[in-house]
Every structure is written in C-alpha cells, then in structure tokens.
Design goal:
With 332 residues, the chain is an alpha/beta fold. It folds into 2 domains: 130 residues, Nucleotidyltransferase, domain 5; 171 residues, ATPase, nucleotide binding domain (Nucleotidyltransferase, domain 5). 43% of the residues lie in helices and 19% in strands. The strands form 2 sheets. Strands 3-2-1-4-5 form a 5-stranded mixed sheet, sandwiched between helices. The chain has a 5-stranded mixed sheet with strand order 8-7-6-9-10, with helices on both faces. Strand 6 and strand 7 form a beta hairpin. The mean pLDDT is 95.
C-alpha cells in the first residue's frame, strides 16, 4: 500500500509518502509571511497553501522515488484547523484521487499527532497515555489502539501553546515566539519569578489565568523599571516556561495514578520544547515510566503523521467518499 498524504490544517503545507507503513518522504513548506503580522492570518495561509501544495507534493513523490501512478490511496487532513487551509488540502486530495481513480482517506489532525510515534522506533505499547500539546490543543489522550482513543483531560479555555505565544508577544519577541522562549529559558533561573498554577477539577487544564497574571506582572514591573524585560529576559522566560511545564506534568502524573498506565508519550508542536522534553524524561525516570518523545520533524505539523494515521485506517478498510467535507472543529 502506497499512500500520498497531505497536511494543510494551519500554516504549514506538507506532503508525505508512506509505503507499507514506512515513511519515505516528508516535505514541509513553511509560510514566512505570517511573521510580519505576529501570528497566522487565515486568508494569507490559504493563499500560501495554493502556492505550495503542488511543489511539496511533487517533491514528496520524487524523494520517495515514485510517480503518481504508483499510488494506491490519497490521504488528507480533514480537521481540526483553519477552514480555508483545510479546503485547499482537501480539494487537492479529492481532485487527485478522482483523476487517478483512487480511494480517499480522511485523517483527524490530533489523532495523527499521537500516531506520529509509530513512524520510527521506539514505539509505545498499547494502552498508553499521550499528552498532546499545541497552539490549539492541550489534551491527555488514552490510546487503546491506533484507531481507539479517548480524551480523558483537556484545557477548558486556552491551549498551552497559545500561552507560550501570548507570553512571547507580551515580551515583544518575533513570531513564532515559543521556540525563542525555550531558547532564552536555557540561560535563565526558573525559580526567579513565581507565577500562579490554577487547579482545575480532574484531569482538565486552564491557562487563561496564568496569561492574565503574566500580563499584570509585566505591567507592574515595567512601571518600576522600564528596562525590566531587557534586563531579565532569560529569567522571565525560564520562570514562565517552568510554570507551564509544571502545570502540564502535574496533571499527567495524576492521569498515570488514576489509569495505572506507565507507557507515556507526548505529541504536538509544544512537544518540541526542550524544557518539556527534559522534564518529562526526568519525571519518567523518577516514576518508572516508559517515556516516548517523537523526533523533532514529527512534532510540528507535518504530513508524515497524516501518512501513518492513513496507513492504519487503510489497514482497517476505513476510506471516505468524495462527499466528505473539512471540519474546522472536529472531535475525536
């Protein structure tokens, strides 16, 4: 089974080829245009996808050393994501599948993040818990099998990735700011500035409170010292990042206690954060967990994860019709 997979949920245009469960190419084209505006502009994103999708698909096929006539199916991200961006990928996938008379496979973007762990070794054993963290989602997912997942905890307001982005914006760091916070945090003191940790019931998260607290913290300190941010940037980043990571891992630790599952994975764009990766490894060693962390290229949005999800769906015979529409808000 040779599948071409297309990912276009937000601002990364990506195509990948998977052959019998092995990813042979994974091409990603980023959209630098959003740096000017300090965040993703949906209309500009969809236009950029139209420009990038043909070149990334062509390169994915070339890198895999195949042609379109070697394909057995076409996969695409159905949602969640930006409607305009999803439409570009879905429309291209449908047109190509129709022209080649091939079946279609629709993929859930967040489920694909979880299944990225099955692209390379080591692979988690079922059942396992996956902390999925991104700009739009923060979830603890109980993964019983490749096609059987349940969200057992999630944010009730903002995602942790959005909290990182908001922090960076308030610090006047260029977009995307999350990686820069991680970079500065390596040189700072994580205990220099205390920030509140809101306690939610059960396994759910909340990040709106800490964002507001950070805003008031900056306003207060800048009144006393206009150069406060410049003089304390590394310590501010380290303290804020440390607090966000503590919030994430506190709930994950509780989830392990409740489920008795010690196979633990992380996924999503924020799983590329070095602070989170290091603290999870440390906690895993202390608690006796088997911890799985994906390769950096499979953390952020990419078609390789769409391809592996499509592989599992194809094995189960789960194909979709040409009538399937993108869903910007899509539940498990």
């Amino acid at each position: 089974m040779t599948i071409l997979a297309i990912e276009s949920s937000c601002d990364d245009s990506s195509a990948a080829v998977i052959i019998n469960g092995k990813v042979h190419s994974n091409i990603v084209a980023t959209q630098a245009i959003h740096q000017k505006w300090g965040g993703v502009v949906p209309e500009l994103a969809s236009r950029a996808h139209q420009q990038h999708i043909v070149p990334v698909v062509a390169e994915a096929l070339q890198r895999a050393n195949i042609t379109k006539n070697d394909l057995n199916a076409i996969a695409f991200t159905r949602g969640p994501g930006l409607l305009g961006s999803l439409l570009v990928g879905a429309s291209f996938a449908k047109s190509l599948a129709l022209g080649l008379n091939l079946p279609l496979i629709d993929v859930h973007h967040m489920q694909a993040h979880v299944l990225a762990h099955f692209i390379d070794e080591p692979k988690p054993n079922f059942p396992f818990l996956c902390l999925t963290v991104s700009g739009g989602h923060t979830q603890i997912v109980l993964v019983r099998s490749a096609l059987n997942m349940e969200i057992i905890g999630e944010t009730q307001d903002d995602a942790v990735g959005e909290a990182f982005d908001k922090t960076a914006k308030l610090l006047e760091l260029p977009y995307p700011g999350g990686p820069l916070i991680d970079q500065y945090a390596k040189e700072g003191d994580p205990n220099k500035f205390p920030f509140p940790m809101v306690e939610m019931q059960g396994l759910n998260y909340s990040f709106s409170g800490i964002k507001t607290a950070f805003l008031y913290f900056l306003q207060k300190e800048k009144l006393k010292n206009p150069n406060f941010v410049q003089e304390n940037l590394a310590d501010i980043c380290a303290s804020m990042q440390s607090t966000l990571i503590k919030i994430l891992l506190q709930k994950l630790k509780r989830a392990v206690k409740e489920t008795k599952i010690k196979e633990i994975a992380i996924a999503g764009g924020v799983s590329a954060n070095s602070g989170l990766r290091n603290e999870l490894k440390k906690l895993g060693d202390e608690q006796g967990w088997n911890v799985y962390i994906p390769d950096f290229q499979y953390c952020t949005d990419n078609a390789g994860m769409i391809a592996i999800a499509a592989h599992f769906k194809a094995e189960a015979g789960e194909f979709c019709s040409q009538d399937v529409s993108p869903m910007p808000r899509m539940s498990f």
